């Protein structure tokens, strides 16, 4: 038995359970209970509801879904959307990753920051912005096109499937970017130079060395992008519904409109849930199998590849992508926020603060919604951070039997799309003994469940950097487990836990897909109000609230960067 | 000052017994090294003593307190022990003084002034006076090591545990710290268990060495005993270089290796039993071939390879009339060349017969 293995085993399960769980046991027990509450109960209800009938188990609801052409069409639309958005994300994300990670592209830092901005931009805000940019009639780009060319037809129409794929892609490509850039950053140049010295040309190296090494990252980025597209509610609701087609998420939402068909919604949710779970399984296998010594190795330098004459064309290409994701949408939001009429040119007579005053002081729902969002954000982030800290402590230190199960459960909500989660929670908590529907509590539960995987991953990574010996050293000198938690573990984990807090907070304030099903008139949040304002065609107010949301997000991101000393994407300099 | 008694300790991981019915008595004030290769169970043993692991069978006693048994394990914090870790395990968010003072927080009878005095005193002992306000990250490896030592000693533990404390230091510093640890042990006289895989370290530091093989103790003894009189093949090979010659006992103190006869140390071999004989390379004398008589413990052979090592020459000699190749370590004065025929003379006292079976004996 190797020494490392022996040490690993020495830390495993059984011993610590004996060595002093003492007073800490109740804490772990209640954490486990919380997991059941957040996960097991709602999903259990969801499954039951999808097969439940007056006479026990029945496939009736599934058959109804199968025989409803509209539902099947929505399913198909979702497949089309997710697939093309995934492919397009690769087409955009992978070259950008390569350019910023491996070449001498000018302004790499800027591009990276912009990708980060796109990553944290709520996709539904982007969708609103693109309605203002590329709506067939009043869309600014189309207006410009008609003015310049004199054509009668619009240049682009965003209310189409390609339009939807486009708007989804510009906010999901960062998933591919992150996976690929982080992998590329770990491939030492000498691996490529080894091929070069053996006679391989640039292209041959890319084909035989670099590409095979990043392939798992590429595929796994694709899967993450597909998952993102599958689960999105906002963008399809804004772009597909006016175009007259549904995706599965908007369809589930529609099933909740009066009179709600909960059983059908549950049955439609199941394929989405299963597809997500399956894709994540594939992704895990892919990443788990990589035995690439270079990936994760430290040795070897990384020398940037000179782009030569292509430097500036490449930069231009990157900036075009960023224009679509950031510059144009942010610009049009800013314009709409401070213009009397967003479609008119921005002259002095058109500038106003009226939208701001209207949004925050005249429009009835705003103040309560902002308050609700902040309240939920702070509450979820705080309780969530404590929860994920405890969970990841338990799992990283293997404190209890079945710690693998705890880790699995903590990450499991990642397979649940927001809409599906909302359906499950609606079913579970509209009936005794836990009637939470109509309160902020049900939104809190939804957010906590939804954001737990992100927070858990962050916090688990934090504990992995704290060697258990640091705790052992205190134990043997006389400190009990809880005392060590306070004196040693907590101070060392603090910045990582604050980062987890921020990630959860960012996730909560932008959340739409679960909120849209779970809100009631008294429990609206910012994203729901933005959605309501769409129905009223109030783009100025949407822009004002959207910008407020973005400011809140970027302030939190800045806090994370400060605390962690690295950017949120985890991309190395 | 109590001693430590390990009685039939067993600890498994799955089907593998990391520690297998291990028994060891450490006398009060004694420093015993647990020596063995990777995976021999030495670190597991230490963690069992520290209370981080529970035994599946067996007991650990300190003085008249039973600290570990399958039924109950006194948690680490109530064992009155201290431990020095391979990684030092210094807390990066505490200063040197805070690190050292930590264990004193749990000694209720001390006043704040007492604590301060003891920390200052201990830092002087490890030659770190003036470093109180530094953080571990601002210290060299050797200084971090000293902080770890100070943090362990300042609480005046009954038992001190060290887990390969020197393996992260460079070679020169390591040698220096060996003597330093031995000096501190002589000054404080704490009963100590010291885990290492480095036999030279074990020999310099410890009063006695316990050689571990696959979770069991192969031999316990002073450095002299384990080096000069290894009891098993494993011990003979692990402690220093040696030649192992397999043969059959033909008399109480004689072993036949093919046509060769070796008189060995001690007596009591059973004729006909298979015996391995351990002969250290520096215990074989090389003499000129023409003057050499052939007989018991006097052989003739051909030099196959000669490697000059600076302070000695390492020869590989194939013995005539036998399938035996011996390593010989000889002074540099009289050099032999490859191909040369030489005589070999071996003192019977240097021929140590070993139990031929692989089973480690206790």
Structure write-up:
Chain A is mainly α and 573 residues long. Chain A has helices at residues 3-11, 14-20, 25-51, 60-66, 69-102, 108-120, 123-134, 140-149, 161-184, 189-197, 202-231, 234-243, 248-255, 262-288, 311-337, 354-362, 366-396, 403-411, 418-429, 440-464, 468-476, 481-509, 515-518, 526-535, 539-564, and strands at residues 52-53, 56-57. Chain A has a two-stranded antiparallel ribbon with strand order 1-2. In chain A, β1 and β2 (56-57) form a beta hairpin. In chain A, α17 runs parallel beside α20. The longest helix of chain A is centred in the N-terminal third of the chain and has 34 residues, at 69-102. Chain A is globular and about 80 Å long. Chain A starts with a helix and ends in a 9-residue tail after the last helix. With 362 residues, chain B is α+β, with helices and mostly antiparallel strands. In chain B, 22% of the residues lie in helices and 35% in strands. In chain B, α3 (112-125) crosses α4 (141-153). The model of chain B is unreliable at 358-362 (pLDDT under 50).
> What characterizes the major β-sheet of chain B?
6 strands, mixed
- By CATH, the architecture of the largest domain in chain B is named 3-Layer(aba) Sandwich
Globally, the shape of chain B reads elongated
- What string gives the helices and strands of chain B in order? EEEHEEEHHHEHEHEEHHEEEEEEEEEE
Largest interface by Cβ-Cβ < 8 Å: A-B, 32 and 41 residues
What's the alpha carbon Rg of chain B, rounded to whole Å?
25 Å
Structural domain tally of chain B: 2
